[in-house]
From TrEMBL:
Residues 1-23 form the signal peptide. The keyword Signal applies. Keywords: Signal. GO terms for biological process: sporulation resulting in formation of a cellular spore. The keyword Signal applies. InterPro entries: Bact_Sporulation_Assoc, SpoIID/LytB, SpoIID/LytB_N. This is Sporulation protein SpoIID. One of its GO terms (cellular component) is outer membrane-bounded periplasmic space. Residues 196-275 form the Sporulation stage II protein D amidase enhancer LytB N-terminal domain.
Amino acid sequence: MKKFISIVLFMVLLFSGVQNPIAAEVKTYPNSVNVSVHINKDVTLTLNGNYQLKNRQTGSKSMIPPGTTITVSSNSTTVTVSYTGFSQTSTSGFDVNELAGTAPLAIFTAQTDMRRGADTSYAKVYAFQTGDSANYLGSFTNRTTGELWYNVNIGSYTGWVPAKNAKLTEGDKLSLANVSNGLTYRGSFYLKKNGSQVEVINILDMEDYLKGVVPNEMPASWHKEALKAQAIAARSYAANMMMLTSTAASQVYRGYSSEDTRANTAIKETEGLLVKHNGKPIQTFFFSTSGGRTANVGDVWNSDQSSFPYLVSVEDKYEKSPYSNWSEEYSAATILKSFGFDSTAKLLDISLEIKGANGEVGAVTVKTSKGDKTVRGNESVIRKLFPLQSSAHYNSLYSNWFTMEVTRSQPALSVQTNSGTVPISDMKGQKVQTPSGEITLSDSIVSVQTPSGVITSESGTGEVLSVTLNGKGWGHRIGMSQYGAKAYAENGWTSTQIITYYFKGTSVSK
């Protein structure tokens, strides 16, 4: 009886010594960042390095052999991950976790018994399943059989396994994943449902994330102090976000594929530095070009200026950019389409409502043969009214800081005034004598008595053929100008001086 109990106890210890037979630990990130990098019906990831797959629904874990390409698909309820000899489905998605440590691992490609010696005649001490891993300690070739064996360790067990059933990892190799969007990324991944598609979320340390941001937001060839200012601003922006995108909607992030040693140096020299106001990290916005002055946040966004005392207009006296000044011409047809009118409408007039202290536009009104319409909103709303046929400029006008010139067809009528003859379309603001006294016209839509009858300005005013917008800057113009930072750096400013100039009343610290 005692012998039976001893055997049972031995078996319990043998098979319960390690609950999850994964030799290496999942890498943790001191300051993790989550970035949505790819959404598609079907996704592939080629994993070059040491990774573990975890099913979030069941909790099961499997080592993925280095160099494996996994295929990920989704329907409305589940995500499926598959690769050679493996397939699992989950309603909660999967984690692809980068593994920590530098020791080489043996990843098992088949069910394998670990033995006390390098031969099948030795006693079994542990049983590995496909996808399990163990720490690799060394190798030995059995001279009798010529078979290569690996000495491995898992938990409290050490023994030998046939090399034909295991694949060794490179212990100190950087783990990188090639995703089917054409880019390569550091870190780990969460594969989740997004409708009927798969969303790939890259999870990595803040400092590694910035390596894929800074050279995409600012040329790495620019002055190092400008790059350092960009790193500080990008870090502070990301620190205030729960989830980031890889586009300009957050910050442009292109992963390991885009890293540059010059940008990496700037990131390292500013490691952990954040922009703070009253001791608390703030969300630091930045953009390409101010056009000479940055904007007050309350003038271009629907924000309470008093809540953001550090986002105020400042001069950019050194800034030089291709977008410091610009002009764009739009046909009447393009404008009418932007305002939702069909091709049969005629554009009779267009006017701007200035909102900002610098002259930023807050509303645009059109008068047409089919009615009038005013569009009012923040800078992005105004800019989208005037599309640019370029994805590089996000198909919208460079900024909402502009003036307008209107080109009209020849007006049918002109009117004699005290100052001379003017087209009827320019009658707004003119003084007119009426039977009840002198009045000032508040509109160009007027009625005029002619020998052939009364004619209104709709029949006597030249239609708008096109408008030319003359503006300044590129972007929302809130916070730090990137071209401005470049210019200040070239004039001897440090990254901290640049940051605290653009974000008034702030400090830079860890």
